[in-house]
C-alpha cells in the first residue's frame, strides 16, 4: 500500500508559482496570492506555501470555480480539474514582524514577488533593488525578500489619540482639585456669613 501511495505521489508534480502577490497589513497579517500554471495532462499539483500558519484559504481556477485541495505541512496539493491556471489566496501572520514603528515583511521565494504596500505606508528599507516600482506595488526578485515600512497615518492617529487621552487625564487632575477647592470656598463663605 505504501509503495502504491509513494508511486502516486511521484506523479504529482511540485510546481513553482508563476506569480506571487503579497499585501501586508498593519495588524501583522499578510494576504498571499499565488498563481500556478498547470500542465495539460496534470490532475493534481503540489505547491509550497509561504509561512506555516494559513487562514482563509481559497483555491480556485481562473474563472473563480473552487477546487479541492489538502494541506500537509507547508505543501498544498490541488485537484486541478482541467484548469490551465490555479489561484491560491490565504492570510498568514508568519511573514510580518514589528520593531518599534517599523514593520518588516520577510520571506524566501523561488519566483519574483509583487508586494503591494498599504497606501499610508512609507518605505524604510529593502533587501535588494526592486525589479519594478509602480505606485505602491514593488516587484522584488526571487530569493530572500525583506521590505521594511512605517504606517504613517496609523501612527499619527495613535499619537493624536495618545495626546488627547493624556490631555483629558491632565484636565481631570486639574479640574477635580479645583472643584473641591471651589466647594470649600462656597462652604466657607456660607459659614462666614452666619
Strand content is: 35-45%
- What's the helix count? 2
Which secondary-structure class do the elements indicate?
alpha+beta
**How far apart are the first and last residues' alpha carbons, in Å?**
105 Å
Annotation, overall tally of beta strands: 14
What does the main sheet amount to? 7 strands, mixed
What is the gyration radius calculated from CA atoms? 28 Å
Residues in helices, as a percent range:
25-40%
Mean pLDDT: 81
User: Largest sheet, order of strands side by side?
Assistant: 4-7-2-1-10-13-12
- Gross geometry: elongated
User: What is the succession of H and E elements?
Assistant: HEEEEEEEEEEEEEEH
**Poorly predicted runs of 5 or more residues:** 1-13
3D structure, described in words:
26% of the residues lie in helices and 42% in strands. It is of the alpha+beta class and 194 residues long. Strands 4-7-2-1-10-13-12 form a 7-stranded mixed beta sheet, with no helix packed on it. Strands 8-9-14-11 form a 4-stranded antiparallel beta sheet. Strands 3-6-5 form a 3-stranded antiparallel beta sheet, with no helix packed on it. It is elongated and about 105 Å long.
Question: What would the keywords be for this entry?
Answer:
42% strand; 26% helix; alpha+beta; four-stranded antiparallel beta sheet; 194 residues
Question: Summary?
Answer:
This protein has 194 residues and is an alpha+beta fold.
Give the helices and strands, then pairings:
Layout: H1 2-10, E1 19-24, E2 30-37, E3 44-48, E4 55-61, E5 69-72, E6 75-79, E7 85-92, E8 96-99, E9 102-109, E10 113-116, E11 121-126, E12 132-134, E13 137-140, E14 143-151, H2 152-193
Parallel strand pairs: 1-10
Antiparallel strand pairs: 1-2, 2-7, 3-6, 4-7, 5-6, 8-9, 9-14, 10-13, 11-14, 12-13
Amino acid at each position: 500500500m505504501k509503495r502504491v501511495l509513494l508511486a502516486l505521489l511521484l506523479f504529482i508534480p511540485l510546481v513553482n508559482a508563476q506569480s506571487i502577490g503579497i499585501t501586508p497589513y498593519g495588524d501583522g497579517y499578510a494576504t498571499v496570492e499565488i498563481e500556478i500554471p498547470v500542465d495539460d495532462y496534470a490532475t493534481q499539483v503540489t505547491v509550497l506555501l509561504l509561512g506555516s500558519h494559513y487562514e482563509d484559504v481559497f483555491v480556485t481556477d481562473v474563472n473563480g470555480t473552487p477546487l479541492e485541495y489538502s494541506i500537509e505541512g507547508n505543501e498544498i496539493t490541488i485537484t486541478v480539474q482541467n484548469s490551465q491556471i490555479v489561484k491560491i489566496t490565504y492570510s498568514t501572520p508568519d511573514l510580518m514582524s514589528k520593531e518599534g514603528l517599523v514593520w518588516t515583511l520577510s520571506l524566501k521565494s523561488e519566483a519574483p514577488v509583487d508586494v503591494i504596500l498599504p497606501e499610508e505606508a512609507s518605505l524604510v528599507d529593502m533587501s535588494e533593488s526592486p525589479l519594478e516600482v509602480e505606485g505602491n506595488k514593488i516587484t522584488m526578485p526571487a530569493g530572500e525578500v525583506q521590505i521594511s515600512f512605517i504606517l504613517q497615518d496609523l501612527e499619527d492617529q495613535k499619537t493624536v489619540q495618545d495626546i488627547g487621552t493624556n490631555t483629558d487625564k491632565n484636565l481631570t487632575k486639574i479640574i477635580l482639585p479645583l472643584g473641591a477647592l471651589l466647594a470649600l470656598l462656597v462652604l466657607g463663605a456660607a459659614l462666614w456669613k452666619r
